[in-house]
Amino acid sequence: MPVITLTIDEALVSARVGQTVLEACRDEGISIPTLCHLDGISARGGCRLCLVEVAGSNRLLPACTTLAAEGMQVSTRSDRIDRYRRMILELSFAERNHQCAVCVSNQNCELQALAAELGMEQVRYDYLDPDLSMDLSHERFGIDHNRCVLCLRCVRVCDEVEGAHTWDVKARGIESQVITDLNQPWGESLSCTSCGKCVDACPTGALFTRGATVAEMHKDAGFLRRILDGREKRQWRR
Amino acid sequence: MQESSPNKSRPRLATVWLGGCSGCHMSFLDLDEAIIDLLQEVDLVYGPLVDTKEYPEQVDICLVEGAVTNLDNLKLIRQIRRSTRLVLSFGDCALTGNVTSMRNRIPVEDLLTAVYHEASSPIGAEAVEAVPALLPRVLPVHQVVRVDAVLPGCPPDVDRIAATLSALLDGQTVKLEPRMRTFG
Amino acid sequence: MNHASLEIAAEDELRRQQDLRLRIFLCYSTPCVAAGADRVRKVLDELITEHTLAAELEIVATGCMGPCSRGPLLRLRHANGSESLYEQVEPEQARALLLEALDEPSSEGGTAQALALDMPFFARQTRIVLSNNSEIDPENLDHALARGSYGALSKVLQDMTPADVCAEITRSGLRGRGGGGYPAGVKWELVRKSPAERKYVVANGDEGDPGAYMDRTIMESDPHRLLESMAIAGYAVGAEQGYLYVRGEYPLAAARLVKAIKAAERRGLLGSRVLGSNFNFRVDLRVGAGAFVCGEETALMVSIMGRRGQPVPRPPYPAQSGLWGMPTLINNVETFANVAPIIAKGADWFASFGTEKSKGTKVFALCGEVVNSGLIEVPMGISLRDIVFDVGGGLPEEGRFKAAQTGGPSGGCIPADHLDTPVDYESLQQLGSIMGSGGLIVMNDRSCMPDVAKFFVEFCRDESCGKCVPCRVGTLEMYQIMERITKGSANMHDLELLEDLCDLVQETSLCGLGMTAPNPVHNTLQYFRDEYLAHIRDKHCPAGVCQLDHVPVLDMPEHASHLIIDREEL
Description:
Chain A: Residues 80-119 form the 4Fe-4S His(Cys)3-ligated-type domain. By secondary structure, chain A is of the alpha+beta class. Chain A has helices at 21-27, 79-95, 110-118, 153-162, 197-201, 223-233; strands at 3-8, 11-16, 51-54, 61-62, 73-75, 134-135, 141-144, 167-170, 177-180, 207-209.
């Protein structure tokens, strides 16, 4: 397999041709924060947390969609990047109603963990306090739009792995909201196979198993790699 | 608990309870015997655990539990800021609004009507009069006054409180490790 | 139709026109129709039928003539070549004009106001892109042929290799007119050299900047120019399929393009074996559904492919991987409109207009506080002063020039101190604005700059697609702060937050919409910071536009005072 050499945070590393900067970093044990990214589904580049500096580019580039290239010089950390990452988290927290204390995914939430990890302590912007609903019409699962960060992992995992394409998005901008089928109640969806992949893929408490109460939702985003390895490489593990 | 005798060398500590559930103060009490050690080091000059009516002058450290939800909170927090060297947002309500702010999507008038007139056992107009005027929106403390340090958690557990207080008393910047600074 | 019959058709049509006693050109573009051009046309049609004059004269319902605020516009051209132009023509005035031209003067109807054809509005313009606009009926292919349309296509098919065509475009110095200013020839060459089984050509007609209507006018007034240029591009890069992406708000443009495509296909100018050659080129129309972001090239292509119109990160660039993963040439409508003339008259001719780095002309939609508002085409490098005070005729009611806004929601305001700046890509960028697609709004001192900036921030907030966090939430938070500033409840801390947010949204957004959304704020803060400070510190709007009555009763010096609404008991 062709190999390329690049510099990440001043260390010379090698990567396979076709790998993204994010994959190359993670292979080297360099952690880059991500929220919309999920190993096993297509990259989206929407959360902007994985932005890195690449020498020669006057813009910050998302590590999840940028291919590693020979001779590339990447910086994954800087004061500027750290500050922007915290600000992006501030905006994410301000956008909807993320009261961690009363969330099913409390202490099992990627957004919550990112805030702690990146040192996002206070939101300086107006909390927008949108008036959003929950859909509890499905017999096994529920969605609370108050906790949704619009990463669209549910949309992608449902489309690309389950092949159902139950989830999609309505409206645009700040009005964007994930929907099931053509904006029908989830419980009435004809396409949903009730596989639950969306629930495990969801980084926050937006998608949950019904009956779960505060801090009871344990997400398992790693399930995706396991089933894909099983499907594609015939490697089964638990 | 009595206010300790004034001692110039000992930092003056206050705790206040704004719009919150007092859970942060409960967690504070969970310091158990460490509280006794703490009181050797500080003068506790104001708070729900102290019988003082007015917020005193020249407070060194104030732990603020709860969000700014009404006019009384607003007046108090401004006075706290004027009279206090280090203001600490103590717990998620102070930091983010948290549960207290879940009323923000409901207009104040509708909220009062729902709680005091349409509830299963209506309380009546006189009760509404007794409630301090609610602000149109609940605000985290740092969106009202400058805050010097934060302590997240709902409530922050004892380890976090201990680590934060010891840093503050040592005159150091509060820098909790990531696992100790999660919300929730 | 082959190369020879194309020439014959053009000559036949020219001869027919020259034999007419009188040609009546009536501007039939959207602004003039809105002003009553259709009523004028009806009266003239009746008169012609009445006097059985159809063999001697014709009415040409043309595309845009330019001075849009003066419509309906009517131009008469006699067989001897003499011409006269009239503005704000009423139906009865048109009737009188026609009778007079036919030597049957009538006292009824009154006289229409004539416009001097050598007035600076016309004299200072150089029309390359708009050269056919006021000469042809956009729905009449023969009119276009008589003006030389498809001649350039015929030329490249007969005499030039694809590499020659790309080289010619490169040599001309043509740059992208959609706003980016990327050298068109370089892009063409990239697509030409990308190996692939299929390639595509896309014309971006999703013009969405407030106040801008250059592309609409080109599509409505001279659709064959666009089709011919796309076919030339297809030949140059090796594509057999073109897509025209027109925003849904332009139904007339879409309808005319459909007609033009059909007419060109019928005559063998598009489709299989174009002009009898081995080159095939089909053009299909795609109509947008009202999202500004679809003017962003990656979102536009996603929309053509039938998916939700949201941008995708670049690289890869469309030239490498565009529609269905294939190399795709995407240019703005106005960029394409320059191609046929460049091929027909040569790169050197084109490069003789403009400045060293910005060649040719630029079409602007000149509007706002200016006497002659309308669509203009001026050589690159002309000063802003000449545009506003010569072409535009200055400000009405002796208003004082304050700023000119260029580049729409991605642009900025250029203050009076910089009126002598040459209008080209680099100079405008140096001033913190951009050329953009060509909106040019003139403002007098009754415009409040924070209020203007707020308008554009609101626009971007509403048009954000919602894919990336900084643009989706950041533009909204920016708007909230702008709202506080213009309502009088902001403090200095808000200004700090705003500037911080502008940096974030600019540097971390996924696509051009987000990256440029803070420009109007950045730029007005650069030149008109004192106005912001007047709003924040003195609760005073110098221009007298803003209602600064949102002052909280409680005087809170720090943070958040804006959130306390007035209440009696406070």
